[in-house]
Protein backbone atom coordinates (compact mmCIF):
# COMPACT_ATOMS: atom_id res chain seq x y z
CA UNK A 1 0.00 0.00 0.00
CA UNK A 2 1.12 3.55 -0.75
CA UNK A 3 -0.20 6.40 1.39
CA UNK A 4 0.44 10.12 1.09
CA UNK A 5 -0.55 12.04 4.22
CA UNK A 6 -0.89 15.83 3.91
CA UNK A 7 2.00 15.92 1.45
CA UNK A 8 2.80 19.40 0.12
CA UNK A 9 5.32 20.40 -2.53
CA UNK A 10 5.87 23.65 -4.40
CA UNK A 11 6.99 23.79 -8.02
CA UNK A 12 7.49 27.31 -9.36
CA UNK A 13 4.19 29.09 -8.58
CA UNK A 14 2.07 25.99 -7.99
CA UNK A 15 1.62 24.49 -4.55
CA UNK A 16 0.67 20.83 -4.68
CA UNK A 17 -1.11 18.97 -1.91
CA UNK A 18 -1.65 15.24 -1.98
CA UNK A 19 -3.71 13.03 0.28
CA UNK A 20 -4.22 9.60 -1.25
CA UNK A 21 -4.05 5.89 -0.65
CA UNK A 22 -3.23 3.28 -3.28
CA UNK A 23 -4.23 -0.19 -2.03
CA UNK A 24 -1.80 -3.09 -2.06
CA UNK A 25 -1.77 -4.95 -5.40
CA UNK A 26 -3.95 -2.32 -7.09
CA UNK A 27 -3.19 -0.87 -10.53
CA UNK A 28 -3.96 2.85 -10.54
CA UNK A 29 -3.81 5.14 -13.57
CA UNK A 30 -3.25 8.86 -13.02
CA UNK A 31 -4.75 11.17 -15.62
CA UNK A 32 -5.22 14.91 -15.93
CA UNK A 33 -4.09 18.05 -17.76
CA UNK A 34 -0.42 18.65 -18.52
CA UNK A 35 1.41 20.53 -15.79
CA UNK A 36 -1.00 19.43 -13.10
CA UNK A 37 1.53 17.50 -11.03
CA UNK A 38 1.22 13.91 -12.23
CA UNK A 39 4.95 13.28 -12.63
CA UNK A 40 5.65 15.12 -9.37
CA UNK A 41 3.29 12.74 -7.59
CA UNK A 42 5.35 9.77 -8.83
CA UNK A 43 8.62 11.52 -7.97
CA UNK A 44 7.43 12.09 -4.40
CA UNK A 45 6.62 8.39 -4.05
CA UNK A 46 9.92 7.33 -5.64
CA UNK A 47 12.03 9.79 -3.65
CA UNK A 48 13.26 11.97 -6.51
CA UNK A 49 11.42 14.84 -4.81
CA UNK A 50 11.05 15.42 -1.06
CA UNK A 51 7.86 17.00 0.30
CA UNK A 52 7.96 20.24 2.23
CA UNK A 53 5.42 18.79 4.66
CA UNK A 54 3.59 15.52 5.19
CA UNK A 55 4.56 11.88 4.95
CA UNK A 56 4.93 9.20 2.29
CA UNK A 57 4.34 5.68 3.57
CA UNK A 58 4.83 2.37 1.77
CA UNK A 59 3.44 -0.68 3.54
CA UNK A 60 3.14 1.43 6.72
CA UNK A 61 6.85 2.36 6.65
CA UNK A 62 7.62 6.07 6.56
CA UNK A 63 9.92 6.56 3.55
CA UNK A 64 9.58 10.36 3.35
CA UNK A 65 13.28 11.08 3.82
CA UNK A 66 14.73 7.92 2.27
CA UNK A 67 16.68 8.29 -0.99
CA UNK A 68 15.30 6.51 -4.08
CA UNK A 69 17.66 3.53 -3.90
CA UNK A 70 16.46 2.70 -0.38
CA UNK A 71 12.75 2.69 -1.25
CA UNK A 72 10.90 -0.51 -2.25
CA UNK A 73 10.11 1.04 -5.64
CA UNK A 74 10.93 0.46 -9.31
CA UNK A 75 10.18 3.14 -11.89
CA UNK A 76 9.84 2.98 -15.68
CA UNK A 77 10.19 6.21 -17.66
CA UNK A 78 9.14 7.23 -21.16
CA UNK A 79 12.73 7.22 -22.45
CA UNK A 80 13.36 3.68 -21.07
CA UNK A 81 16.83 4.57 -19.70
CA UNK A 82 18.74 1.92 -21.63
CA UNK A 83 22.49 2.32 -22.17
CA UNK A 84 23.56 2.14 -25.80
CA UNK A 85 27.02 0.64 -25.07
CA UNK A 86 25.57 -2.32 -23.13
CA UNK A 87 23.65 -5.23 -24.59
CA UNK A 88 20.09 -5.98 -23.49
CA UNK A 89 21.20 -8.60 -20.97
CA UNK A 90 23.58 -6.16 -19.30
CA UNK A 91 20.94 -3.41 -19.28
CA UNK A 92 18.58 -5.70 -17.38
CA UNK A 93 21.36 -6.87 -15.04
CA UNK A 94 21.88 -3.26 -13.95
CA UNK A 95 18.63 -3.64 -12.01
CA UNK A 96 20.41 -6.08 -9.70
CA UNK A 97 23.97 -4.78 -9.59
CA UNK A 98 25.34 -1.61 -11.23
CA UNK A 99 28.77 -3.30 -11.20
CA UNK A 100 27.35 -6.11 -13.41
CA UNK A 101 29.05 -8.62 -11.10
CA UNK A 102 26.32 -11.23 -10.65
CA UNK A 103 26.38 -14.67 -9.12
CA UNK A 104 24.78 -17.67 -10.80
CA UNK A 105 21.40 -17.16 -9.13
CA UNK A 106 21.28 -13.51 -10.14
CA UNK A 107 22.26 -14.36 -13.73
CA UNK A 108 19.38 -16.84 -13.83
CA UNK A 109 17.01 -14.05 -12.70
CA UNK A 110 18.14 -11.88 -15.61
CA UNK A 111 17.65 -14.75 -18.05
CA UNK A 112 14.17 -15.44 -16.66
CA UNK A 113 13.14 -11.77 -16.85
CA UNK A 114 14.26 -11.47 -20.47
CA UNK A 115 12.35 -14.63 -21.33
CA UNK A 116 9.23 -13.32 -19.59
CA UNK A 117 9.19 -10.17 -21.70
CA UNK A 118 9.98 -12.06 -24.91
CA UNK A 119 13.58 -10.92 -25.37
CA UNK A 120 15.57 -14.09 -24.65
CA UNK A 121 16.65 -14.43 -28.28
CA UNK A 122 17.82 -10.79 -28.38
CA UNK A 123 19.74 -10.79 -25.09
CA UNK A 124 23.12 -9.95 -26.61
CA UNK A 125 21.98 -7.28 -29.05
CA UNK A 126 22.63 -3.61 -28.38
CA UNK A 127 19.67 -1.22 -27.89
CA UNK A 128 20.33 0.38 -31.27
CA UNK A 129 19.71 -2.98 -32.94
CA UNK A 130 16.18 -3.44 -31.59
CA UNK A 131 12.88 -1.57 -31.84
CA UNK A 132 11.50 1.07 -29.48
CA UNK A 133 8.99 -1.42 -28.10
CA UNK A 134 11.75 -3.92 -27.42
CA UNK A 135 13.76 -1.27 -25.59
CA UNK A 136 10.73 -0.63 -23.39
CA UNK A 137 10.55 -4.37 -22.72
CA UNK A 138 14.11 -4.08 -21.42
CA UNK A 139 12.92 -1.46 -18.93
CA UNK A 140 10.10 -3.78 -17.83
CA UNK A 141 12.52 -6.69 -17.43
CA UNK A 142 14.83 -4.51 -15.33
CA UNK A 143 11.90 -3.72 -13.05
CA UNK A 144 11.21 -7.46 -12.79
CA UNK A 145 14.68 -8.32 -11.56
CA UNK A 146 14.61 -5.52 -8.98
CA UNK A 147 11.76 -7.40 -7.29
CA UNK A 148 10.28 -4.37 -5.50
CA UNK A 149 6.61 -4.32 -4.36
CA UNK A 150 5.83 -0.89 -5.91
CA UNK A 151 6.00 -0.17 -9.64
CA UNK A 152 5.71 3.40 -10.96
CA UNK A 153 5.34 4.21 -14.66
CA UNK A 154 5.62 7.75 -16.04
CA UNK A 155 4.02 7.74 -19.50
CA UNK A 156 6.22 4.76 -20.44
CA UNK A 157 4.54 3.89 -23.72
CA UNK A 158 3.60 7.33 -25.03
CA UNK A 159 5.95 7.08 -28.01
CA UNK A 160 4.56 3.71 -29.17
CA UNK A 161 1.78 3.11 -31.67
CA UNK A 162 -1.66 2.00 -30.44
CA UNK A 163 -1.22 -1.75 -31.02
CA UNK A 164 2.25 -1.91 -29.50
CA UNK A 165 1.17 0.29 -26.58
CA UNK A 166 -1.69 -2.10 -25.83
CA UNK A 167 0.71 -5.06 -25.94
CA UNK A 168 2.99 -3.35 -23.43
CA UNK A 169 0.06 -2.48 -21.18
CA UNK A 170 -1.05 -6.10 -21.23
CA UNK A 171 2.49 -7.19 -20.32
CA UNK A 172 2.74 -4.79 -17.37
CA UNK A 173 -0.76 -5.63 -16.16
CA UNK A 174 0.00 -9.37 -16.25
CA UNK A 175 3.32 -8.84 -14.49
CA UNK A 176 1.72 -6.67 -11.81
CA UNK A 177 -1.04 -9.17 -11.12
CA UNK A 178 1.31 -12.16 -10.99
CA UNK A 179 3.58 -10.43 -8.47
CA UNK A 180 0.86 -8.56 -6.53
CA UNK A 181 2.58 -5.25 -7.23
CA UNK A 182 1.12 -1.91 -6.24
CA UNK A 183 1.30 -0.12 -9.58
CA UNK A 184 0.76 3.58 -10.34
CA UNK A 185 0.92 4.73 -13.97
CA UNK A 186 0.75 8.26 -15.34
CA UNK A 187 -0.87 8.38 -18.78
CA UNK A 188 -2.48 10.89 -21.13
CA UNK A 189 -4.43 8.13 -22.86
CA UNK A 190 -7.82 7.41 -21.22
CA UNK A 191 -7.97 4.10 -23.10
CA UNK A 192 -4.81 2.99 -21.24
CA UNK A 193 -6.56 3.48 -17.92
CA UNK A 194 -9.67 1.65 -19.12
CA UNK A 195 -7.58 -1.25 -20.44
CA UNK A 196 -5.27 -1.81 -17.50
CA UNK A 197 -6.18 0.03 -14.32
CA UNK A 198 -8.44 -1.17 -11.50
CA UNK A 199 -8.55 2.41 -10.21
CA UNK A 200 -7.98 5.81 -11.77
CA UNK A 201 -7.07 9.13 -10.18
CA UNK A 202 -7.97 12.43 -11.82
CA UNK A 203 -5.45 15.12 -10.94
CA UNK A 204 -5.42 18.84 -11.73
CA UNK A 205 -3.58 21.90 -10.38
CA UNK A 206 -1.63 19.86 -7.86
CA UNK A 207 -4.61 18.07 -6.30
CA UNK A 208 -6.07 14.59 -6.66
CA UNK A 209 -9.68 15.57 -7.34
CA UNK A 210 -10.99 12.01 -7.39
CA UNK A 211 -9.64 8.46 -7.00
CA UNK A 212 -12.22 5.81 -7.85
CA UNK A 213 -12.62 2.45 -9.58
CA UNK A 214 -11.81 3.14 -13.22
CA UNK A 215 -15.22 2.50 -14.78
CA UNK A 216 -16.91 4.54 -12.03
CA UNK A 217 -14.57 7.51 -12.51
CA UNK A 218 -15.04 7.66 -16.27
CA UNK A 219 -18.82 7.49 -15.85
CA UNK A 220 -18.89 10.23 -13.19
CA UNK A 221 -21.02 13.32 -13.89
CA UNK A 222 -19.94 15.26 -10.80
CA UNK A 223 -16.43 16.13 -12.05
CA UNK A 224 -16.66 18.99 -14.57
CA UNK A 225 -12.89 19.25 -14.87
CA UNK A 226 -12.66 15.58 -15.85
CA UNK A 227 -15.46 15.96 -18.39
CA UNK A 228 -13.66 18.95 -19.93
CA UNK A 229 -10.33 17.06 -19.94
CA UNK A 230 -11.95 14.13 -21.76
CA UNK A 231 -13.62 16.49 -24.24
CA UNK A 232 -17.17 15.53 -23.32
Give an overview in words:
This protein folds into 2 domains: 1-72 and 149-232, P-loop containing nucleotide triphosphate hydrolases (Rossmann fold), CATH 3.40.50.300; 82-147. 35% of the residues lie in helices and 26% in strands. It has helices at 38-46, 88-93, 104-116, 132-146, 162-179, 190-196, 214-219, 224-230; strands spanning 2-11, 14-22, 27-31, 53-58, 61-62, 73-77, 150-154, 182-186, 199-204, 207-213. The two termini are 33 Å apart. The mean pLDDT is 92.
Key features of this structure:
10 strands; 6-stranded mixed sheet; globular; Rossmann fold; 26% strand; 4-stranded antiparallel sheet; 232 residues; alpha/beta
> What number of domains?
2
Note the beta-strand portion. 25-35%
Spell the H/E element sequence. EEEHEEEHHHEHEHEEHH
Structural class: alpha/beta
| Count of discrete alpha- or pi-helical segments spanning 4 or more residues | 8
**Uncertain stretches:** none
Q: Compute the gyration radius: what is it?
A: 18 Å
- N-to-C span: 33 Å
What's the short version?
The protein is an alpha/beta fold. The chain contains eight helices and ten strands.
List the helices and strands and how they pair.
Layout lengths: L1 E10 L2 E9 L4 E5 L6 H9 L6 E6 L2 E2 L10 E5 L10 H6 L10 H13 L15 H15 L3 E5 L7 H18 L2 E5 L3 H7 L2 E6 L2 E7 H6 L4 H7 L2
Parallel strand pairs: 3-8, 3-9, 6-7, 7-8
Antiparallel strand pairs: 1-2, 1-4, 4-5, 9-10
Amino acid sequence: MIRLEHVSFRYEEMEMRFDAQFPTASFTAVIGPSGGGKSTLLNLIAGFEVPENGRVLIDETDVTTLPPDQRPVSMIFQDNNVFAHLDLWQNVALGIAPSLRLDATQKARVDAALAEVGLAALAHRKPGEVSGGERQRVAVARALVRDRPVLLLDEPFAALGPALRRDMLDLVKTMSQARHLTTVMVTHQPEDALAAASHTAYLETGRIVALRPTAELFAAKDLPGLRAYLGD
